[in-house]
Queue: 3 jobs
Job 1
Amino acid sequence: MRRRVSESGGRRTTAVSAAQIGGIGGILYVVLFIPAYIVGYPDAPDRASNDQGVFDYFAEGVGSFLFFNGVLSIFAFFFLLWFLGALHGVLRSAEGDEEGGWLSSAALVGGVVFATLSFAGVAVEIAHPATLSRFENFEPDSQLVFTSLALASWLYHFCQVGTSVLVTATSLLALRTGVLPRWLALAGFVVALLTLLHVLIPLLGALVGLLWIAVVSVLMIIGSVGSTPARRTRAET
């Protein structure tokens, strides 16, 4: 009997530690990825930009653009994956074997889609300045730049579909199990809608997604995730 209690306590401690590691990863992801919005978004070429306008966008501060949108994004990607893995563990533990654990699986799939398409968009967006910085004999082609920026923007639109699924599945599971506070679960549905509408409100949709990850990460760090005692007891009975 004593061994069972000890093993149960050990598993609970391991779960808490994993959640805290994931929360730290989520915070670091947000911190490292915010500069990409600051550097890459405000002065982005609009639909009326001419050839010189799109060249000027990258001509000034190519090094800083590559650092904030490229180098920092590599580390942001690394920490995001740790966050998603830990969050899936928390959700899967709360959901148990009920209905095959499909909500926690949907959250993981949504998170992976978001991470993959988001950083594919980053890679496409920095393709021109990276080539410009690396090869001295490179002759810029404005049409290719326009195409790469358009492709990157659509990858960002599609990646937020993954965010919407991640947040929606997490919110549904939170309402059912209490794995996250009820207020965050309800707010999550608003976040899911805004991220899904990223094609219409790109900056707002992206920022609320980052804010949601930051809030969930903080809760994971301070240990405020997990099923409530009442619901856990009801599930056991």
Note: The longest helix spans residues 2-40.
Job 2
Amino acid sequence: MKLKDKVAIVTGAGRNIGESVARLFADEGAKVAVVDMDEARGRRTTDAINGAHQGAAAYFNVNVADEGAVKAMVDQVVKAFGRIDILINNVAVSDNKNIREITLDDWNRTIAVTLTSQFLTCKYVGEQMIAQGQGGAIVNIGSTSGFQGRKSAIAYAAAKGGVANLMRAAAVQLAPYRIRVNSVVPNKIGSPVGKEEFDPSRPVPNLVGRAGAPEELARAVLFMASDDAAFVVGENLVVDGGMSAMMAGGG
């Protein structure tokens, strides 16, 4: 088991990528703090994990864009499991609007949930890891939208661009405490951000010719969180079926 006796926080763990990460981590021996504001989804993931691994998961209803809530979450997870070794920053929302359509409220909400939440959890979980004195691993979930322009979701693209460099800065600043910070960068993995079901008609322009499954990204996250990636720090690992290797227009 790659994560035996480790304690991991997974945000947005009620569905899609976050759910797959939480379940895989439990299979690999971790205790998992399942964080999701949708209680039905969060408890569904928690119950599924505990059904397979008794006592391996606990549910936490947390607004990770709120500083006080994040501080309280850190204390609650330590109280439940004794420590924190791994943080997976997965939660995100998308505006799905272009610059002419978006309102300031849309912008602020998307930035808060998708980017500010990662800053807050890296800060306060990082402080807990430093206090423990045994290092740790943080994996932020980015997006190919953070590396290129697109016709919609301007706030989401800006937030995910911020995630990429937040990760690098945090990697530099937390490395002296043996805390590795990295990012995994998906494209069209499972259902779209904020949606429950995957639309099979959604275009999938990549070299594999299909959408990625959440379990496939979860395995990449597991690699980054485990000792297999002990020499990988400050890296954006792109998991996009080869989409980024393609030239627009095909020629």
Note: The mean pLDDT is 94.
Job 3
Amino acid sequence: MLATGALASAAQSPKYPPVPKSKLFGRIAYSTPGGDIWVMNANGSCRHQVSHSGSGHDFNPSWAPDGRRLIFRTSRGHYQPDLYGNGLEGLFVVDVDGTNELEIEPPTGGMAADWSPRRDRIAFSGLRAGKKFDTLFLMNPDGTGVHDLGTEFGSEGAVWSPAGTRIEYGAHNGDGNWRSGR
């Protein structure tokens, strides 16, 4: 009975051995409470600041597939006020060493940006002229060639398929019920 109790107690609060840092691979991009974007190796080494938000707030970084650039959302930028509270703000790209930062959002701002697997296009949520809900757009990484994909309702969370031929996204018509679309 005592052994069973000890086993039950151990099962309720398992102790896992720490994972050696040398077994972790990859790189991580993240935002800090102070509002800047940072990058580090998965084992915690080579941590460095990528963006300098000043009085703004930089967040939601997304890696380019080659690992050389990031796109991120920011309260900085020259976008129009978000009249409907969709969360549309500035979109910037930057090299992971912190150089070549470029503001790329359209006049209405954007959010939920994701690089195509070929690095030649960025999908993002933005606001169509005269509409209340955000929709999906594509643009070049330098901010040119903005193209409305014509999604019907508010669309967020664009994620490219591995082949770069389809985009998965969430959509709603204002009723609060999200649906998946492609």
Note: Confidence is low (pLDDT under 50) at residues 1-14.
